[in-house]
Amino acid sequence: MHSIEKKYFKSVIPKVSGIIKKDFNLASLTWFKVGGKAEIFFIPKNKEDLINFLKKIDKDAPLKILGAGSNILVRDGGIRGVTISLVKSFSNISYLNNQKVYVGAGVNCIKLSRESASKSLEGLEFLSGIPGTVGGAIKMNAGAYGYETSDVLEKIVTVDRYGEIKEYDKEDLKMSYRKNSLNKNQIIIQALFKCKKGKKYIIQNNIKEFKKRREETQPIKLKTSGSTFKNPIQIKAWKLIKQSGCSNLKKGGAEVSSLHSNFLVNQGVAKAKDVEDLGKLIISKVKKKFGIKLNWEIKIIGTKNKYRKYFND
Fold this sequence. Notes:
Blueprint: H1 3-6, E1 19-25, E2 37-43, H2 47-56, E3 63-66, E4 72-74, E5 79-85, E6 93-95, E7 100-104, H3 109-118, E8 121-122, H4 134-139, E9 143-144, E10 147-148, E11 153-159, E12 165-169, H5 170-173, E13 187-194, E14 196-197, H6 200-217, E15 223-224, H7 237-243, E16 250-251, E17 254-256, E18 264-266, H8 272-290, E19 299-301
Parallel strand pairs: 2-5, 3-5, 4-19
Antiparallel strand pairs: 1-2, 6-7, 7-13, 8-14, 9-10, 11-12, 11-13, 15-18, 16-17, 17-18
């Protein structure tokens, strides 16, 4: 065996307290309900288990963090290396005396907005329109109803590939539209949000209104994954898509939503390739019509063909 081949089979999986699954089907965990398998799927028991794993794992091993699966497309070939889920282990919500909320990265944004409302804390209502996790929302500076995560974020806690814990103030992250400057090797594990006292019934009514608007304008009951493309400067992506004649486009089992043209929908038989090919077709048609290149908001991960194994059996 050549040395370059040995590299791909040299690594072993550290012993953990949490759950390790091999060749795990990821489709059930994503909103599109498509995609391949994770070579290794790891659910850490707690922060210490995650740190221990990161300290012992081969530093060349590919790592991916999977949140709620709401803004992601896993390709049909699956994901090589390790896919880590923080949803179960990092789900704590602590309310501090100064109207601040300390939250685990695996907490669902909708749950956080509702729980904060029940405590008469306002400022997080817009998170009810973001179906992902807190970690994912921070990573892409997710927004809804005119607000962005950066508007309420104060600081984050991360762990890196070497198991080292670091804290960052919001200003360190240089957050802008759907992005920040955080190094990709930093895994967000906790966050601190700032709120203010309000009247519970007003806050809860705002959330109800946001939910109603979302149900009326987005195909949230279908197999979809949120906004497909980022909005270019000064124009909405859905308008460009609609005006480029993409409203009825289909590829295999994937099609453009009739309710919102910036949403792609799996009609039940789609492959990840169908969704990605449909997106590429939309990008091409919009570019040809308007000279504007749409950029994916959905994060596409994995390989088109079966992943090449990294770990020993």
